[in-house]
Amino acid sequence: MSDYASCEIKRPLVRMVRRPAASLAHRTIVYIIALIGALLTGALLIWILGHNPIDVYVSMVRGTFGKRISFNETVKVTVPLLVTGMAVAIAFRMRFWNIGAEGQILIGGVAATSVVVYGQAIPQVPKLILMSLVAMLAAGLYAAIPAFFKAKWDTNETLFTLMMNYIALKLIMYLQYQPGWQADRTTFPKIRSFTPDARLPRVMGIHIGWIIALVLVVIYFIYVKKTKHGYEISVVGESMNTARYGGMNVGRILIRTMFISGALAGLVGFIQTSGADGTLTESTAGGMGYTAITVAWLSKMNSFAMVFVALFIAMLQRGSSSIQTSHGIPASAASLLTGLILFFMLGSEFFINYRLVFRGRPYHG
Amino acid sequence: MDRFINFMNAAVLAGTPLLLGTLGEILTEKSGNLNLGVEGMMFMGAISGLAGAWFAEQWFGWTGVPAALIALLISFLAGAFGALIYAFLTVTLRANQNVTGLTLAIFGTGFGNFFGELLGKRAGGFVTVTSATKQAFAKLDLGPLSQIPVLGRLLFSYNWLVYLAVIIAIMMHLFLRKTRRGLNLRAVGESPATADAGGINVNVYKYLATVVGGGICGIGGMYMTMVTTSGVWVHNTILGYGWLAVALVIFATWSPARALYCGLIFGGLMMLRLYLPIPGVPQQIYDMLPYVATIVVLIVMSIRQSKEYAQPKSSGLNYFREER
Hints:
Chain A is mainly alpha-helical.
């Protein structure tokens, strides 16, 4: 070591050295520091705007859990985020950048609404089941289109799925004027409200979407971790060439997985229209497809972690709308804060994968 | 004829923010950084440019051209700041480029809408700049040039940002094709390891290209607030233009010169509905056109994978010297 130090080779002040797999404790500490860093940066911003940061954060938490009704509202925001998070995550696991969940949710909503429009005579239970199946099928097929082109010609899926968001949005704007779809006795571009028999029943004050979501969390986990399909997804995500070499039909895996991803997002479209809103609007997806990317990435594509991350992001969103009323801070603070947190988390991963070695310090590999 | 000229004018005006976003992203991708956050950087430029002009008026009483120049400067800095976050995370901290870019898009959208609403509140209702400043973004009177029949209206009847965008495109083309530094930058994007071995400081090139590219995207965003909505903040003002710009990079096959006509074509597609209504096609379906066209372009470009017009090889991948 002393030989090294005495020779004239120029050594940088700091070097980065890859760290062997970091322990869970180490990772947790790094993540917590990153979260605190993000919240402090947010606090700095709040302070610059002339508010008391502690005050604002406290009313954010109060706005989320303070009353029974605000808790219910938070859960209502969590459910679609959680399911969309899984939808996005299953595609991300194979490094397929599906940022089209937004459009897939809308297509699911359109499909579910079409049952309401054209199948008025169907009784409640079969109607709800039909609505959910049609929503999943339509959105699954919608999502499979970019996967097909990816498989065949390696077409850029990020932009493809994204463009389909706008197409879905325009489709809804078109349907808002169509007879049968448009609400009665109005010339406004607005889709009719669902009849009570097309609404999801409630359990403990919240529509049963939350039960569906929790069941899906378990199914997702088993599918991804314990089945052949799940294994194939991981291998494709690691390296498409390895998968091909191993004899997997990569194209089929891509299309199949994207169908599932889209179907999950379509289910969200059904849950939102039938459960939360009782109608289909341009904001049925409301940016969820993008926020879900954050949820999926922060939870490292693990569905159990996703429950907490989705709840946390939902808290941020609900909290932001409550500080809009209490402090006059715009509700868009939610996406600003979400972005900040994700930036910090992305940066913090460096300190999990690498360690810094300073000049002069002996280095123990 | 008159109708055609009007259509061309509208196409140029709609295409310019797209062109600026595309140019910024081309410069960025040439360094091997695939920054998907163009939408976010445009949002940041949009609100910062407007806020810059507004505060210049309120605090210093600068209106007209000085306020416009402030808007230009601040919007460039805001876009560059967004890109700097991206560069720090991906180049220094080696974060995943895709996710970092997506985060920048989310963050920038929040940034724009948040400060847009805040500024509106501060201005008492909604923000708007003085008519002198609006005038600074109106179409230029180039004297005799603008008087030429047909050509004058076709070429010399735009606001100064349109000409600035064209100049940036030409300069970027010359930079990439004719200068040593441009060659170095392309080398970094194609094969950072080779460039590194050749004595090029890879990180400096990556940082500079990304930050300047982000600044250009920021100017594109400022165009949307100062020209498209004439100095008024509109919620969600960027409307996916940033994403279209990322797609246009592929359409333009990473060439600033070709970006010029790609921007024009897409500007035209956005305006076509107003100038060429097709009987029986509802407005909302017609509105899908630019997005459908983008998808078609993506598919066609991916089918005819040409060697010459390809994405920089290392695009989307981070460079770790230690892990060559």
